[in-house]
């Protein structure tokens, strides 16, 4: 029953001795003891509370006295049973919190419904109406704090805020303004809960969290609340509103959505990653610590060091930073948030384990303290008698042993709090570097001092570095930044200078880092947030500097999508490969989450999917640049990501169609080219074809709309960027053909109309997403085509003719070797493999397997179609070509999308010195000659 010490057990009757509150109840009415002990074996469920009130309706319905009496009697019964169950170890923490929360919600709604009925009677004030309509409106009771989080403790205040949709007047005999009606209703509700009568009280009510606190009206309209948030809302109020939750049951769903989705959520959760939350939380914590010191509250387990509030601050800072981006964190219970932070690798497993254990222990202790006298206290007792009571009720043999365990938990909390909230430390040279470039560049002494300091740090050409930094500070871009952004850059740049000296070539690294600063500083939608990320997490700077020093493209990618910097903060194993099934489930969970936006859903889904795709690309990029990922593995992973995105987009696009003739589409997306062959690069286009197998009269029209929608989802440029560029020209009849084809029409075209080059393309095709039966039908057609017996001489001529056309379309007038298009390059290898498949698959159908060019060359050698020696050399050459091409593209200034700013930029990416790959080129030519002749 008590995990702390198995020698201590407490039965129901003994539990009473640990609560003077229970003893007073029993002393006033001894019969209560028998009833209490007989019922203590079962929780006090919500249904039992409602049944109790239902039986007492005849008393409560007549006047406030009867209403207040029955609520207090219910409260006494619930607390009494809960105290016995908790102290005896029968009730888990979740039961205690949920029971108290249920009691509060039921009491509030029961009192609210009676007072609303009495006040809105026609002979009294009548119902509050909306302007211009005859529609009634209700008071929205918003629970804050622990009630909002369904974490209420046993002697807690309830923090409430009263809101109503809009101003107007009531329609009764004594008509008053809606504002006055709801204020009166609020005062009546508070009195029914808060006033102390002969039967006690229900809950103390705290209304100070409303805008302007005690100086403001008791009830506020939605417009007033919205204007307040937009013009005067303070940071601490964002923290408070995280747990805000409408608990009034008679509320219109539209009104609740309007309040929480359109007014509260944009105030609490920013659309960008709000790393400024660290500073505001530090400020709030300093205020709490100052108050603790002033009032000597070190023994307070809520507000004191290592207390409950610090655990809540930890969860809330992550929610404020990421809640606008991740609906999983738009939740209220502290323990649930901690589990999400562990699952999302924002906190290490050990950290979460220790925080959860501490939270459970401290909340359990909080309840033991409050059960003593039914007082709202979180302070350890001063008397020896009470200390022994608390220690024993917590399962310890002595107060000293109890204190030892308490201290362990508080030390854990303080340790993790300090790690998370510690202000970044400056290096010894930070201030010196900060002051080096604050004067005009013509100051010779300043120039000399800067160069000297940079030389000390290890820069070989300090003058060049100093001049470039000074140039940045004098640039029009920097001078036009808001003062906040300028300040953050001045704080960040010294640490950046100290970092880049470790990542040569330092001039290149500096230039790329400065460009990155420009890119992330100019994001208007997220003012200075990513600068703050780098300031708050200086350990990320070396990782960023290393990435940009290795790859120009990585630097550009970070500039375009700075939100992926957040991926560097995850606590995970080094360079793990993605778990695509888990990520698929995670994505589906986000799209179906109860907290997803209720308006502009498609826009949110598009942005969220883009953020997801960019994050996965960046994870793979970081792993790749660490040198721990083979190119073939990288391509497999990028292809798996594309498949997942296509499957998700297909589902979203189908659900978005207004007219659908079936629940799931009999539709498939066929991948060709690099997507089909699983050789995708970081920014490859997707060559796709849309097929269906459905005889419904509306099928062609519906699937055409679906195909257009899928393409729009993929190619739309939103504020979050692009998913993929697509190429649909490989469909039957190319650009002049239909967007979608039935399996029957596709098969007929391939059998009777397709060109040889289209059959060549089919060698790398596969179903990337969609219906399994359609995929099987496509694969059956594909194999039929590829296994057709062909005249080898005619096939050779057709393929050689196509190869010559391609070479003519990509002339190389330089002395360099074009890895892709020149003789002995990548395309020659691909054409060799395609010829072997089309020419011999009728005898060896295993050649139709989608196993990639390297594996197919090996298989062809095993089948004695080509020599093993030439095959192995060509395999090595093909692998090296792809590696070289990959490295060159990573260090290019091009965006790698295939749409360069100049005609020759993509070709230039494929070209190297001829001698560099000469042996590999000759190996491919040798195999070409073996297969096709000279």
Q: How would you describe what is shown here?
A:
The structure is a single chain. The protein is mainly α and 934 residues long. The protein folds into 5 domains: 12-268, Beta Polymerase, domain 2 (2-Layer Sandwich); 275-383 and 409-421, Up-down Bundle (Four Helix Bundle (Hemerythrin (Met), subunit A)), CATH 1.20.120; 428-569, no CATH class; 587-786, Beta Polymerase, domain 2, CATH 3.30.460; 792-932, Nucleotidyltransferases  domain 2 (Four Helix Bundle (Hemerythrin (Met), subunit A)), CATH 1.20.120.330. The protein has 41 helices and 12 strands. The strands form 3 sheets. Strands 1, 2, 3, 4 and 5 form a 5-stranded mixed beta sheet that branches. Strands 6, 7, 8, 9 and 10 form a 5-stranded mixed beta sheet that branches. The longest helix is centred in the first third of the chain and has 27 residues, at 93-119.
Summed up, what is this model?
With 934 residues, this protein is mostly helical. Strands 1, 2, 3, 4 and 5 form a five-stranded mixed β-sheet that branches. Strands 6, 7, 8, 9 and 10 form a five-stranded mixed β-sheet that branches. The chain is globular, with a radius of gyration of 35 Å.
Outline the fold blueprint:
Layout: H1 12-15, H2 20-28, H3 31-39, H4 46-55, H5 57-60, H6 64-87, H7 93-119, E1 140-143, H8 145-148, E2 158-164, H9 178-194, E3 205-206, E4 219-221, H10 222-231, H11 235-241, E5 245-246, H12 253-268, H13 277-294, H14 308-322, H15 334-343, H16 349-373, H17 384-393, H18 399-421, H19 430-436, H20 444-457, H21 462-473, H22 476-479, H23 483-500, H24 506-521, H25 529-536, H26 540-550, H27 552-560, H28 580-591, H29 601-625, H30 631-656, E6 667-672, H31 673-676, E7 686-692, H32 699-715, E8 726-727, E9 740-742, H33 743-752, H34 756-762, E10 766-770, H35 772-786, H36 792-809, E11 817-818, H37 826-840, H38 853-862, H39 868-890, H40 905-909, E12 911-912, H41 918-932
Parallel strand pairs: 2-3, 2-4, 7-8, 7-9
Antiparallel strand pairs: 1-2, 1-5, 6-7, 6-10, 11-12
Helix pairs in contact: 4-7, 6-7, 7-9, 10-12, 13-14, 14-15, 14-18, 15-16, 16-18, 17-18, 19-23, 20-21, 21-24, 23-24, 23-25, 23-26, 24-26, 24-27, 26-27, 28-30, 29-30, 30-32, 33-35, 36-37, 37-38, 37-41, 38-39, 39-41
GO molecular function: [glutamate-ammonia-ligase] adenylyltransferase activity; [glutamine synthetase]-adenylyl-L-tyrosine phosphorylase activity; ATP binding; ligase activity; magnesium ion binding
Pfam families: GlnD_UR_UTase, GlnE
Region (Adenylyl removase): 1-425
């Amino acid at each position: 029953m008590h995990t702390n010490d198995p020698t201590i057990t407490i039965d129901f009757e003994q539990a009473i001795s640990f609560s003077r509150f229970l003893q007073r109840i029993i002393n006033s009415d001894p019969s209560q003891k028998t009833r209490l002990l007989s019922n203590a074996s079962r929780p006090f469920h919500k249904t039992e509370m409602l049944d109790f009130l239902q039986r007492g309706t005849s008393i409560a319905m007549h006047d406030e006295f009867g209403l207040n009496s029955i609520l207090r009697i219910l409260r006494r019964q619930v607390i009494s049973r809960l105290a016995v169950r908790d102290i005896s170890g029968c009730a888990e923490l979740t039961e205690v919190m949920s029971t108290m929360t249920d009691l509060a919600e039921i009491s509030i709604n029961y009192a609210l419904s009676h007072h609303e009925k009495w006040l809105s009677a026609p002979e009294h004030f009548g119902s509050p109406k909306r302007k211009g309509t005859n529609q009634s409106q209700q008071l929205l009771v918003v629970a804050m704090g622990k009630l909002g989080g369904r974490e209420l403790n046993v002697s807690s205040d309830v923090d409430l805020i009263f809101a109503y949709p809009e101003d107007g007047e009531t329609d009764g005999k004594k008509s008053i303004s809606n504002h006055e009606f709801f204020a009166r209703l609020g005062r009546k509700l508070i009195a029914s809960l808060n006033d102390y009568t002969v039967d006690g009280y229900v809950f103390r009510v705290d209304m100070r969290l409303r805008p302007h606190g005690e100086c403001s009206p008791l009830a506020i309209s939605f417009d007033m609340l919205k204007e307040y948030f937009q013009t005067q809302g303070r940071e601490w109020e964002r923290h408070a509103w995280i747990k805000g939750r409408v608990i009034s049951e008679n509320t219109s769903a539209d009104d609740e959505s309007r309040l929480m989705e359109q007014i509260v959520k944009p105030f609490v959760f920013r659309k960008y990653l709000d790393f400024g939350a660290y500073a505001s939380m530090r400020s709030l914590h300093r205020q709490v610590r100052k108050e603790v010191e002033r009032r000597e509250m070190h023994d307070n387990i809520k507000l004191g060091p290592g207390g409950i509030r610090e655990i809540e601050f930890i969860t809330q800072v992550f929610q404020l930073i990421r809640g606008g981006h991740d609906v999983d964190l738009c939740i209220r219970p502290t323990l649930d948030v901690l589990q999400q932070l562990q699952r999302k690798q924002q906190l290490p497993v050990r950290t979460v384990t220790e925080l959860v254990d501490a939270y459970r222990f401290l909340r359990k202790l909080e309840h033991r303290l409050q059960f003593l006298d039914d007082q709202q206290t979180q302070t350890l007792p001063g008397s020896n008698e009470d200390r022994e009571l608390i220690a024993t009720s917590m399962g310890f043999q002595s107060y000293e042993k109890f204190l030892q365990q308490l201290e362990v938990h508080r030390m854990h909390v303080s340790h993790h709090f300090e790690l998370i909230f510690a202000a970044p430390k400056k290096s010894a040279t930070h201030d010196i570097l900060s002051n080096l470039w604050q004067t005009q560049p013509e100051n010779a002494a300043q120039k000399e001092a800067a160069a000297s300091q940079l030389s000390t740090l290890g820069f070989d050409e300090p003058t060049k570095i100093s001049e470039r930094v000074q140039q940045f500070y004098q640039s029009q871009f920097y001078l036009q930044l808001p003062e906040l952004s300028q300040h953050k850059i001045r704080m960040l740049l010294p640490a950046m200078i100290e970092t880049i000296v470790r990542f040569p070539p330092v001039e290149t690294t500096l230039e790329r880092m400065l460009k990155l600063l420009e890119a992330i500083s100019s994001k208007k939608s997220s003012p200075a947030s990513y600068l703050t990320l780098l300031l708050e997490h200086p350990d990320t700077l070396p990782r960023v500097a290393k990435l940009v020093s290795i790859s120009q493209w990585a630097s550009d990618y970070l500039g375009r999508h700075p939100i992926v910097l957040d991926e560097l903060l995850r606590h995970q194993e080094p360079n793990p490969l993605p778990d695509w099934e888990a990520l698929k489930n995670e994505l589906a969970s986000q799209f179906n989450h109860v907290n997803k936006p209720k308006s502009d859903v498609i826009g949110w889904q598009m942005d969220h999917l883009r953020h997801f795709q960019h994050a996965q690309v960046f994870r793979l990029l970081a792993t790749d640049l660490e040198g721990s990922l083979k190119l073939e593995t990288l391509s497999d992973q990028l292809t798996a990501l594309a498949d997942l995105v296509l499957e998700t987009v297909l589902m979203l696009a189908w659900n978005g169609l207004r007219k659908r003739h079936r629940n799931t589409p009999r539709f498939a997306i066929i991948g060709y080219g690099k997507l089909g062959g699983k050789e995708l690069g970081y920014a490859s286009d997707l060559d796709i074809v849309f097929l269906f197998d459905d005889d419904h009269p509306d099928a062609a029209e519906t699937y055409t709309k679906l195909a257009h929608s899928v393409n729009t989802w993929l190619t739309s440029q939103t504020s979050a960027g692009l998913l993929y560029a697509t190429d649909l020209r490989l469909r039957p009849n190319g650009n002049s053909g239909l967007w979608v084809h039935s399996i029957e029409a596709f098969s007929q075209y391939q059998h009777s109309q397709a060109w040889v080059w289209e059959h060549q393309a089919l060698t790398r095709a596969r179903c990337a997403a969609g219906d399994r039966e359609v995929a099987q039908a496509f694969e059956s057609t594909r194999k039929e085509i590829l296994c057709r017996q062909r005249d080898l001489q005619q096939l050779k001529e057709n393929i050689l003719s196509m190869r010559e056309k391609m070479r003519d379309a990509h002339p190389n007038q330089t002395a360099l070797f074009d890895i892709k298009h020149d003789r002995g390059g990548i395309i020659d290898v691909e054409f060799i493999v395609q010829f072997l498949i089309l020419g011999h698959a009728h005898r060896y159908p295993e050649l139709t397997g989608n196993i990639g060019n390297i594996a197919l060359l090996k298989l062809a050698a095993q089948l004695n179609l080509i020599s093993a020696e030439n095959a192995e050399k060509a395999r090595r050459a093909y692998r090296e070509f792809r590696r070289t091409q990959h490295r060159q593209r990573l260090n290019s200034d091009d965006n790698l999308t295939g749409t360069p700013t100049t005609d020759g930029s993509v070709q230039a990416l494929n070209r190297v010195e001829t001698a560099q790959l000469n042996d590999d080129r000759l190996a491919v030519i040798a195999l070409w000659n073996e297969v096709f002749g000279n």
